[in-house]
Write a structure and sequence with these properties.
Blueprint (H helix, E strand, L loop, with lengths): L7 H4 L3 H4 L2 H7 L2 H16 L10 E4 L15 E4 L2 H10 L7 E3 L12 E7 L7 H14 E11 L4 H15 L4 E5 L8 E7 L23 E2 H7 L5 H30 L21 H11 L10 H6 L1 H13 L3
Parallel strand pairs: 1-2, 1-4, 2-3, 4-5, 6-8
Antiparallel strand pairs: 5-7, 6-7
Helix pairs in contact: 6-7, 9-10, 9-12, 10-12
Length: 326
């Protein structure tokens, strides 16, 4: 039977009441620990690589599954006492590293933190609380501070609401980045606020990517590349998408070619493989450019090894073809 129960943040806007002692223990599981570790490491990898001396704030730390992967002397804040009690009893950080407080009313002095992260918290907030939350983030961050918040936008409107609230409160150009914790994972969304970065408004359109098209987000590969961050695994995702498109278009062209030369009743179209993913509406144009611009070692056409050997070119072709549709 499929699991179709709404997530907790859709059932309750009061996490301090939702996460009772029993519910907090259910949340603090080994499976959640692995997920939180992946998401936390991803959020950390999106932060600017400059050296900082002040502690990091984990906003909405819950039972500390994310805080325990942060640098020493980091501080976790959460509104649920049950979660905080579990964090203090199960993690190696000192009890003073966990503070009870709401994201829209942080109990810290201004300009306290150089970096703020948040994992799976922002969707709990109402629109008014969302705006106040970003105002609080702007207040506690140092002038050259940065924040990365892993979020679950419901739809494009919700994503734009988050971006607008962040831009207004921080007076910066926040970016919604589509990233992948590992190749077999679904896309995850990270709202990045970098106060010391140059405005992205002029280059934002060039960061669009078919991998991030559901929420009109920014390509993590280009976002990371511009900031000198590691991006190798993201090239793998681009290559896989391009390979699925190439295989699908080539197969369809072969089928239509055979059909035009065969007499009698038309045959059914070939069944689409369950792992094939639609990249974007103009897949045929993407494949045409791949064939025209990439060298191949096979007389019958491109191979997956050809795409892997030219991964950066594949990514640029994908972006250029996708942007031409805008």
């Amino acid at each position: 039977m499929p699991y179709n129960r709404p997530p907790p943040e859709r059932r309750s806007r009061q996490p301090d009441r939702f996460y009772s002692v029993d519910q907090a223990n259910v949340y603090h599981s080994e499976a959640n620990s692995t997920i939180q570790k992946d998401l936390t490491e991803m959020a950390l990898s999106l932060l600017p690589p400059h050296v900082v001396s002040s502690p990091m704030l984990d906003m909405g730390c819950g039972s500390g599954l994310s805080t325990q992967h942060l640098p020493p002397h980091s501080v976790g804040v959460d509104v649920s006492l049950s979660m905080l009690q579990l964090a203090r009893s199960s993690n190696s950080l000192t009890p003073s590293s966990y503070v009870c407080g709401a994201a829209f009313s942080l109990p810290f002095r201004s300009h306290t933190f150089d970096r703020v992260i948040s994992i799976s918290m922002l969707q709990w907030l109402s629109p008014d609380q969302l705006t106040q939350c970003f105002m609080e983030i702007a207040r506690v961050l140092t002038p050259r501070g940065s924040a990365v918040l892993q979020v679950y936008p419901i739809d494009l409107d919700h994503a734009n609401e988050m971006l607008a609230a962040a831009a207004k409160a921080t007076n910066s150009s926040p970016v919604l980045v589509a990233d992948f914790p590992h190749p077999n994972s679904a896309v995850k969304w990270f709202l990045c606020v970098d106060a010391c970065a140059s405005p992205l408004s002029s280059a934002f359109g060039h960061d669009k990517c078919p991998l991030a098209r559901r929420l009109d987000g920014t390509c993590a590969y280009r976002y990371r590349h511009r900031r000198g961050l590691e991006y190798g695994r993201l090239l793998h995702e681009h290559v896989q998408y391009a390979w699925h498109a190439y295989r699908k278009v080539k197969r369809d062209m072969q089928w239509h070619g055979r059909e035009s030369h065969e007499s009698g009743a038309a045959k059914a179209a070939p069944t689409r493989h369950h792992k094939e993913r639609r990249v974007f509406p103009n897949e045929a144009r993407l494949v045409h450019r791949l064939v025209e611009e990439l060298p191949t070692t096979n007389d019958t056409g491109l191979t997956l090894d050809d795409l892997k050997a030219n991964a950066k070119t594949v990514a640029e072709i994908m972006h250029a073809t996708f942007e031409s549709l805008e």
